[in-house]
Automatic annotation (TrEMBL):
It comes from Shewanella scandinavica. SMART domains: CoA_binding. Gene3D superfamilies: 3.40.630.30, ATP-grasp fold, A domain, ATP-grasp fold, B domain, NAD(P)-binding Rossmann-like Domain, Succinyl-CoA synthetase domains. InterPro entries: Acyl-CoA_Synth/Transferase, Acyl_CoA_acyltransferase, ATP-grasp, ATP_grasp_subdomain_1, CoA-bd, GNAT_dom, NAD(P)-bd_dom_sf, Succ_CoA_lig_flav_dom. Residues 740-896 form the N-acetyltransferase domain. Coiled coil: none annotated. The keyword ATP-binding applies. This is Acetate--CoA ligase family protein. It comes from the Bacteria. Keywords: ATP-binding, Ligase, Nucleotide-binding. Residues 501-733 form the ATP-grasp domain.
Length: 901
């Protein structure tokens, strides 16, 4: 990745068109037309040996003849010419090229190397970046740049749109132009062989001209980079995504379209949710989302007020709002009294405000003003249905005037729905021109509002402080991995309940008492010792779901029952699958199921995002896409709770309200521990717990199936989200003999980290924050404690306080740029623990971390008043310089040795 080279893509000062043409409908001709008509102020340089000029612009016979190095080149030639063109452009000094040609991965040269591979080899050799191939191009309306094959230009605006589909690009562009909606950038990724979603999200997330980002995705390649970039960007601005391939057939079509890896749609959904993005399901929702993003203010709350001139549309809007989990605002007596004064006696006297019949412009304007004046609403939806007495355009104009003149215009969100076609068209155009969201149906307007609500809720949920798992629950990765590796050494690929039980017990998970026996005699011996009733199950490597072949018999109460069951099971299995190898039988104690509920938990391995945890109802016929809530590890207690809520909300899990049924805390502990197992044990390829018996606080795993990776499999990058790096924990001793733990920060640290921040003296806070600042808010503290370990690091030092609880004594943190070229650090130590070596320990740990991370440079800034910090940095090898103009001390360290450079 390189944000630096993307500068030439987003801010080019000159453009070369390779393969420019005077022939109508050729790509090189369309490109020239679009560039010349869009108002780009820089040099536009056609390159072609066929013409002296293209569309009146002097042409150059070859790349070497260009008078300047182009910032951006657009290649419009046949695929077979692209590799050589890219090499020549890169040698000439061009930094970014857009490739229009398609099918380059399928065409090969005489050596059998694909044209795409040759192109990328040539580009990488010189540090050149590629957008495409198979790209429609890009539009940058603020620069007047239309370097695309699109049929129209884009208006300037604050939404960025990035798509893998050229057809979706032109469809969205056509619709947006009709609605008067503009873009900060409009980019067709094509096959995304080089420049991809992650780099663009990093750039657009920091782009001041972009207030919202929209993505059309067929597939994702770099899972960790994608999620890190999306998570960082979504904290600052909403990201909406439409993902194709929701069905199995659609996923196959999407794979053929882009050549990407096809992943499970439910896992994609979980990844989007985890990164704070909001998914829309179709183009209608996408267009509604564009409308709301183009004109909306940041949502302050969820209370919606509705004004309508008809009861039916208002009821439809309320139904949609409630069904989607929205909140209808409650009007105070004071607000109702004010409305009474301006509305007829027939009005509804509640929200929704049905002003009925001959609702004219004055009445609408007065009602809207009263609602905007109140503090009881966060958004207002104004509905209008065609009426012989209704002044459709006049009402729209009156409302636009009220909204623009009101002091709350930048805090309240106003949405409108003028239903109908011919009679409503002009009014909707007025709203669009006035910068006010407008929709064709009440349901569409409410759906757009709920997009904003869901984005706000997602961000709040992701910022929740997780509670810690109880101390009495073990997490013994050493024991678990030793057992798993022993199984791998024996050539085992599957572990059943009796073999998996000690592994799961190492993480505090309970399995039913289980024994493996070779025959009925051994089963009877176990039964006589363990007691009845028992269950008997077939053990065969050829049978995944025992119940499918009637390989299970329950409630056996005698030796005779056991012998009969063993014989019957063997016969049924051989009838169902004559080739099945029966290794023996599994004997289990019967679980007490009265008042309990059966659920299913699994960990699948997704080809795109790696391990994913699934939660749903029990049963052998189970498809995670349709039957389970899905979440990506790592999970903590807050994220596990979010997962359970999602499962209940979508009816993938049903709370049957049994006497000893679902207990939220117990479920969350189990899911979090399963997450820990998956993170700690790369030997596990998949895990299936079916069924799991939930009986209040007691959760018992009845049947377990663990599939193992091959012992030589590479599992270093299997996780989509980098988990907590437990290996970086260490103990150290300070000069005064105090023993402290140095470790990465955790989301659970938020309350103690807030206490640490509040404990800093006014002077220390002044030095840390370069000025006077108030106490941290929850949102600010969440950013500091819920970090992405792939993008930043924060080490804290903790020690036991007088009450036995950990106290945070100091912290050092640094974030790296997306290119991993530089990390910038900041540090603070409690005043009563300064001067005893704590700051030195923290900074040394940070230096070692970024050296191991191959980060070239570590920098920091401090105020002139903080000479102690500067002295510490200098003693550790930083180069310290003074910026007299900014009144700052700069600390700089080259982390790479001369031999590494």
């Amino acid at each position: 990745m390189s944000q630096r080279t993307l500068h030439s893509l987003f801010k080019p000062t000159s453009v070369a068109i390779i393969g420019a043409s005077n022939t109508e409908k050729r790509a090189g001709n369309v490109l020239m037309k679009n560039l010349l008509s869009s108002g780009f102020s820089g040099p536009i340089m056609p390159v072609t040996p066929k013409y002296r000029a293209v569309m009146g612009v002097l042409a150059y016979p070859n790349i070497e003849a260009l008078p300047i190095k182009p910032d951006l080149a657009v290649i419009c030639t046949r695929a077979c010419r692209v590799p050589a063109i890219v090499e020549t452009l890169a040698q000439f000094g061009c930094k970014v090229a857009i490739i229009m040609a398609s099918g380059m991965a399928q065409e090969v040269n005489e050596d059998g190397v694909s044209l795409l591979d040759l192109t990328m080899q040539n580009a990488k050799r010189y540090g050149m970046r590629i957008l495409g191939p198979n790209s429609l191009g890009m539009l940058l309306p603020p620069l007047g740049l239309n370097a695309s094959l699109a049929h129209a230009s884009a208006l300037p605006g604050k939404i960025a749109f990035v798509s893998q589909s050229a057809a979706i690009c032109t469809t969205v562009l056509d619709w947006a132009n009709n609605k008067g909606i503009g873009f900060s950038s409009f980019i067709s990724l094509g096959d995304a062989t080089d420049i991809n979603f992650d780099e663009l999200l990093d750039y657009l997330g920091r782009d001041s001209r972009t207030s919202a980002i929209m993505l059309y995705i067929d597939s994702v390649n770099e899972k960790r980079h994608f999620l890190s970039a999306a998570r960082a960007a979504s904290r600052n601005k909403p990201i909406l995504v439409i993902k194709s391939g929701r069905s199995a057939e659609g996923a196959r079509a999407a794979k053929l379209h882009t050549g990407g890896v096809g992943g499970n749609d439910a896992v994609y959904e979980a990844a989007f949710r985890r990164a704070g993005m909001l998914r829309v399901n179709d183009l209608i929702e996408l267009f509604a989302a564009v409308e709301s993003l183009a004109h909306s203010n940041p949502l302050q709350g969820e209370r919606l007020g509705i004004i309508s001139n008809g009861g039916g549309p208002a009821v439809l809007a309320v139904d949609e709002l409630i069904m989607r989990g929205g909140k209808l605002a409650e009007l105070s007596d004071d607000t109702i009294a004010k409305l009474e004064a301006v509305l007829p006696n027939t009005w509804s006297r509640q929200n929704p405000i049905d002003i009925i019949g001959d609702a004219n412009a004055s009445r609408y304007a007065k009602a809207l003003t009263i609602l905007m004046d109140s503090n009881e609403l966060d958004a207002i939806l104004v509905l209008h249905s065609p009426s012989a007495l209704g002044e459709s355009v006049e009402i729209a104009d009156a409302l636009i005037s009220v909204i623009h003149a009101h002091p709350k215009k930048n805090r309240l969100n106003i949405l409108t729905n003028w239903s109908g076609e011919d009679s409503a068209y002009q009014a909707r155009k007025r709203f669009t021109k006035g910068g006010i969201s407008t929709y064709r149906t009440p349901e569409g307007a409410v759906g757009a509002f709920m997009h904003m609500v869901e984005y706000r809720r997602n961000q709040k949920l992701l910022q929740e402080v997780p509670q810690s798992i109880p101390d009495n629950i073990p997490t013994d990765s050493h024991t678990a991995r030793k057992l798993l590796q022993a199984a791998q050494a024996k050539g085992k690929s599957v572990l059943e309940t009796h073999e998996a039980s000690p592994i799961l017990r190492a993480y505090g998970l309970n399995t039913i008492d289980t024994w493996f026996v070779k025959d009925a005699d051994e089963a009877v011996a176990i039964a006589n010792e363990a007691g009845y009733p028992l269950a008997l199950k077939v053990q065969s490597p050829n049978i995944l779901h025992k119940s499918d072949v009637h390989g299970v018999m329950l409630n056996l109460t005698s030796a005779e029952d056991i012998r009969h069951a063993a014989s019957a099971i063997t016969q049924r299995v051989h009838q169902a699958n004559p080739e099945a190898i029966i290794e023996g039988m599994i004997v289990q104690k019967m679980a007490l199921t009265a008042g309990a509920q059966e659920i299913r938990v699994a960990v699948i391995s997704d080809p795109v995002f790696g391990p994913a945890i699934c939660l749903g109802e029990g049963g052998s016929e189970w498809d995670p896409t349709n039957d389970a809530a899905v979440a990506l590890p790592p999970l903590n207690m807050a994220l596990a709770r979010y997962m359970v809520i999602q499962a209940l909300k979508t009816h993938k899990l049903k709370d049957r309200h049994l006497p000893l049924g679902l207990d939220m805390n117990a479920l969350c502990v189990m899911l979090t521990q399963i997450s820990h197992i998956i993170i700690d044990c790369p030997e596990i390829a998949s895990l299936d717990l079916n069924p799991v018996l939930a009986a209040g606080e007691n959760i018992t795993l009845l049947d377990v199936n663990i599939r193992l990776h091959d012992a030589n499999a590479d599992s270093s990058s299997r996780m989509a989200i980098m988990p907590y790096p437990k290996e970086l924990e260490e103990f150290a001793e300070l000069k005064n003999g105090l023993k402290v733990m140095l470790r990465p920060i955790l989301p659970e640290d938020e309350p103690k980290h807030l206490a640490f921040d509040n404990s800093l003296s006014d002077e220390d806070r002044y030095k840390r924050y370069f000025g006077v600042r108030s106490k941290m808010t929850h949102e600010e503290m969440a950013v500091l404690t819920q970090i992405d370990y792939a993008r930043e690091m924060a080490f804290i030092a903790t020690a036991k306080g007088p009450d036995g609880d950990d106290i945070t004594l100091g912290a050092v943190r640094a974030s790296i740029d997306p290119d991993n070229t530089e990390a910038e650090f900041a540090m603070a130590v409690r005043g009563d623990h300064q001067g005893i070596g704590l700051g030195k320990l923290l900074l040394e740990k940070l230096i070692k971390y970024y050296q191991a991370n191959d980060t070239p440079v570590l920098t920091g800034f401090t105020m002139f008043e903080n000479r102690n910090m500067a002295s510490l940095a200098k003693s550790l090898g930083f180069k310290v310089t003074f910026d007299m103009e900014e009144h700052l001390i700069k600390m700089h360290m080259d982390l790479k040795s001369p031999t590494d450079k």
